[in-house]
Design a protein that fits this description.
By secondary structure, the protein is mainly alpha-helical. It has a single domain, classed as Helix Hairpins (Orthogonal Bundle), CATH 1.10.287.1080. About 80% of the residues lie in helices and about 0% in strands. The chain starts with a helix and ends with a helix.
Length: about 100
């Protein structure tokens, strides 16, 4: 079984913590300060970069860009008040 859930929980928790306890110089706080439009733009950019990496057949780039996408998606989820458990329940429902 994959261990992605462990690290996603950690990433999500750090993003939540940055939202509650801003730290100067934090990129996460920069995104929150810029607001929803900036966060959505970054999610879109990262999704596009994943697609380009995949089309180019670059495994390492897909891994790198998909990781960026997951991080930015966590920022968006926290901004919207969506938890990883919410996603779990929806995915479970779809099975």
């Amino acid at each position: 079984m994959s261990r992605i859930g462990e690290v996603m929980d950690e990433v999500y928790a750090v993003v939540e913590d940055r939202r509650s306890h801003p730290q100067e110089g934090s990129y996460t706080n920069y995104l929150f300060d810029k607001g929803l439009d900036k966060i959505c733009k970054k999610v879109g950019e990262e999704a596009t970069e994943v697609v380009i990496a995949a089309k180019n057949g670059k495994h390492d780039e897909v891994v790198y860009e998909a990781s960026d996408l997951l991080y930015h998606l966590c920022v968006l989820l926290v901004e919207q008040g969506v938890t990883l458990d919410d996603l779990y329940e929806e995915l479970k429902r779809r099975r």
